[in-house]
Structure formats: C-alpha cells, structure tokens
Design goal:
- By secondary structure, the protein is mostly helical.
- It has helices at residues 5-14, 18-24, 43-50, 54-80, 87-119, 124-147, 156-191, 197-212, 216-231.
- The chain has 9 helices and no strands.
- The longest helix is centred in the last third of the chain and has 36 residues, at 156-191.
Length: 249
C-alpha cells in the first residue's frame, strides 16, 4: 500500500462506530457479551458466538504471518545453500504480507488497539516501537516485491539484498508479534469494560469481508499452503524430531 492509500484505508477502518465504539468500552478477557436474562441469551451473546472476538481474530492473523516467516526462513536457507530461488514463490508470500498483514491487520491495530492504549497512557514506548516496526516492515516488503516481480529464478545480483531483507523482517517480526500477543492484546482487553467486544468483533469481520470477500482469511491460508507445498515445507510431520529417548535396556 502506498502512502497515498493509507488515509483512505484509515478512513474505512475508522468509519461508522469506529473509535467511538472502542472508547465506549469492550469486554476484558475473551469478552463474550453477558446475557441480561439467565433464561434468554442476549443478542450480543449470540453474535459473539458467531463472530470471533477481535483479539482472537488478530492472533489468528498472527498465525498466518508466522507461516510466512517460516517461508522466508526456508528461502533464506535455500539461498545459503546456493540453490536458485524461484521469484514467484517469494513474491506471492510478500504480496500476502503487503495486502493482508500490512494493509489490513496492522491497520486494525493502528486504528483501534494502539490509540486506546495511548489514550490510557499504557505501553506508550512499546506502541511507539511497534509503529516504527510497522513502517520498517513495509519498507522491507516493498524491497522484496520490487526485486521478485519477474518470473523464474532470482537474478544473482538481487539475491543477497532480498535475503537480507527477509532476514531483517523475520528477526523483527518474531518478537514483534510475540509481544503483541502476550502483552499488548491482553492490556488492550483489560482496559475495556464489558458490553462492546462483540460489536468490535463484528466490525473486524465486516471490514475483512468488505476488503477480501466472505472467505478472505481462509483464502489467504490456502494461498500460503500452496507456497509451502511448492517449497516442500507443507507436511507438518517433517518438523517432528527423531525420538531422542534411549531405548530401555
């Protein structure tokens, strides 16, 4: 996403209830809305059962990002072994980072999560660092996209810069998303009173449908799986270590 696209994207994310809904309060923990009557679940509770709460959505998207980091790691390993790199696989992975992680997931964080923490005066240094890392990540993604736009093998001249960019991206985003999952998202949920978590979950789901269609996340997972299959890293069993327990005598 270019700099000119960002204000329009932010306007979409902030439209309607937007940050006013966030300021009005969201549930802590996983925040399922409470029923007002023990015998009749509230409409909010029923919606919450159908739509994942926003923290769960964001963490699932982090799972998608982790899989792309694993793709980047595999490509870096391949380059270190002097094997040719297929530009198309790497380009496809970077496109998913650009379109889904940077232009959607991170925009949600920047429009909803980070402002609420800043307003409360919580984790302000951490949020500043995360925002800077978002910007640096976008720069690295643009470099990767620019150097992998052609088909066939990567040119030798661009292999080293691309692998350096991937390594920097992986090194930054592994602690980045871990800190968000274990510190930032819990702090965000703890700030928000009960009653609105379902509405925000619905809002995130609506925004995703608007931008990517009804099966947007599933489609992204499928695209990542296809890249993993092409690189030979899809089979989960291959990552299981051999039995290191010595046999009983």
């Amino acid at each position: 996403m270019t700099g000119h696209d960002r204000p329009a994207r932010r306007a979409i994310l902030l439209s309607g209830a937007g940050l006013a809904a966030v300021g009005g309060g969201l549930a802590s923990g996983f925040g399922v809305a409470r029923a007002t009557d023990d015998s009749q679940p509230s409409p909010q509770l029923l919606r919450a059962l159908e739509v994942p709460p926003p923290g769960e959505d964001l963490m699932a998207e982090h799972g998608l990002l982790i899989r792309i980091l694993l793709i980047y790691r595999e490509v870096i390993t391949t380059a270190a072994a002097d094997h040719p790199l297929q530009a198309a696989h790497l380009h496809d992975a970077a496109v998913i980072i650009h379109d889904y992680i940077e232009a959607f997931h991170e925009e949600l964080e920047e429009a909803y999560v980070f402002p609420r923490l800043q307003k409360a005066g919580q984790l302000t240094d951490t949020v500043s660092t995360l925002l800077l890392q978002h910007a640096r990540g976008r720069e690295l993604t643009q470099l990767i996209l620019a150097d992998t736009g052609s088909t066939g093998s990567l040119r030798t001249a661009v292999t080293a810069p691309v692998t350096r960019a991937m390594a920097a991206f992986v090194r930054m985003y592994e602690p980045h998303e871990a800190r968000e999952d274990t510190v930032v998202y819990p702090a965000f949920r703890a700030l928000l009173p009960a009653g609105e978590i379902a509405e925000l979950g619905e809002r995130f789901a609506d925004l995703q449908r608007q931008q990517f269609g009804p099966d947007g996340f599933a489609a992204m997972v499928s695209r990542v799986a296809q890249i993993e299959q092409a690189l030979g890293i899809y089979d989960l069993a291959q990552f299981t270590p051999a039995n290191i327990t010595p046999p009983a005598s």
